[in-house]
Amino acid sequence: MKIGILSAMQEEFDLLLSEVKDARRTSLGMREYIEGTLYGKDVVLVFSQWGKTASASTTANLINVFKIDRLIFTGVAGGLDAQAKIGDIVIARRLFHHDVDASPFKRRYYVPLVGADGIASDDQLSDELSSAAQKFVADIAQYISEEDRAEFSLGDVAVHRKNIATGDQFIKTDDVRTRIMTDLPDMYAVEMEGAAVAQVCWEHSIPFAVMRTISDTANEHSPMDYPKFLDRVASIYSLYIMKNYLESL
Ligand code: ADE
After folding, report:
1. Counting CB atoms within 10 angstroms of each CB, which of 2, 31, 115, 238 has the fewest?
2. Could you report the average pLDDT of every consecutive run of 10 residues in the chain (249 residues)?
3. Any idea where the domains of the chain sit in the sequence?
4. Which atom of ligand 1 is closest in space to residue 218's alpha carbon?
5. In CATH terms, is domain 2-248 a member of 3.40.50.790?
């Protein structure tokens, strides 16, 4: 079985790559695809670049060129729900495009082939990833320093299985945040790739899961040091959750 691991951030990709054995590199469509073994399992790693088109084209290549059997997507997201704290983990249940509107021809949020009810992630894969994330959270003190846990308030990290909204915008105002939450059902987090990756996987019957670390609250109040969070928190989450997952297979 070959597992595609698609990272939304260069920092995550670099850290995963440092653990790959027998790495073989292929350049295709302005991406570097790395085939090799990670914790004893066959993987293909790639940095998606940002946004729906970039992540969809990378996913299509993982499926059609690299012949992956399943796909895991990792990255960060803005929290929409009031319960979503920075540092929490969200594993997608359903993914929706929040920026699709072909009205009056179709109702708002209708996506060709998919419909308007979002795309469901694979339950088994998402459950396995949730278990790997729970194990990581239980052991978090082994992986993230006390200083960084204090700086980013990672005292009580939760793992959620919730809906994710995707669009080609970084959400940074309460107006847009509220519009997404009002119009779409039970959105927990917002990001820029998940539904696009989900749609391509769904079209090709490839089981997929989307995992995101909450990095901000998708409004004006995100005071944190973003690069530091990516380096010292989100990338570490991705590496060790993937390790737990791969070692559990
Ligand atoms: N990824 C991380 N935070 C985000 C936000 N606020 N909007 C869109 N994508 C994100």
Report:
1. 115
2. 97 97 98 98 98 98 98 97 94 98 94 95 98 98 96 95 97 95 95 98 98 94 81 96 98
3. 2-248
4. 6
5. no
